[in-house]
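forwarding from the other thread:

> can someone predict this with zinc ion?

sure thing
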Amino acid sequence: MSEGSMKIETEFDQAAAVKLVLELMAVPGRSKQEGRVVELIRTKLLEAGVAPSNITIDKSTHEIPGGGEVGNLIVNLPGTKKGPRRLLMAHLDTVPICVGCQPKLDGDVIRSTDQSTGLGGDNRAGVAVVLTAALELLRQKRPHPPITLFFPVQEEIGLYGARYVTANKLRSPELCFNWDGGDPGNVIIGATGDYAIEIEIEGLASHAGVHPERGINAIVIASLAISDLTQNGWHGLIEKGKHRGTSNVGIVNAGEATNVVTPKLSLKAEARSHDPAFRKKIVEAYRKAFVKAAKSLKSADGKSGRVTFNADLKYESFRLDPKESVVSIARSAIEQVGLTPELCVGNGGLDANWMTAHGFPTVTLGCGQRDIHTVKEWLHVPNFLQGCQIGLLLASGEV
Ligand SMILES: [Zn+2]
């Protein structure tokens, strides 16, 4: 169709979208326990006329560490017009604090009436955007290109659903849109990468009052290493020339008694940077600092401690070219509903990190979430509805 002659329809049943998000938020579904929310979505799709054979659950739980109640939910909507396949996605799980939530609409806001729970707008608002787009296309009998709906499990505990997705079930989408965020004008085109660091220190036990010189204190080794990292600028905010990153020692476990020279310590830390080479340098600085500290502390008879060092890439960073079509299409959809698109880059991991690593460049969009992962969480309903409008435009292939 020629430009200017086409009026893009942005109307949809807003009351139904609000009802749907309330219904989705009331269903408990922390990570690894997404079975009930999968059932609810499946029921809605079947009622709308989706063929049961187009709704599948993948086998990701066979590979996800610790398994899970249910795999990723993947839905195929065969195209009713030509165009590259589009994928719309939103993770299913919520953080544990949202279990038991009683969502209530109050003007422009949805909150949980139970003040001891979060709301689960992260990410049931995203799920409601994707589902609303699909249900509206079907209800309006609106022509659309082939669509994949992708509802990954276990995002909150390590992006597991997206990481271990049975990728061929996604049917090679060319344009991928993920909803998980607040401001519907934001287009997240990149995110950082993150290493999980695990360190075990083995010292030597001895009586702390009788023969402390015979022991090697694992806590002292860790302290020396952490202070080395801090003094040399490798802990916290890291700025070396034009390279940037962050690292944090988050968990330390050691010791059972004060009268024993502590023989064992385990520690968990993380290292982030958008720059993969620099991120590895941070990890290397950690390894060196702990090995050096272990060597430097000796017992009276010349023994030293041992360090076991492990670094696991939780997710790789990515950065989409603003000129890529998935980015420009997301921008035009946002402009179409009267908002100003803002390209941004995140400092946390997203399912989009793994989607992009699988070869499906994905932008992440907002859907009204606010104060997520806290008992104060709420949903900005007008932003949520704008998210739905954008989702419907993107699904229809009209932008
Ligand atoms: Zn989320």
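The pocket of zinc ion is lined by residues 91, 122-123, 155, 180 (CB under 6 Å). thats all i got for now
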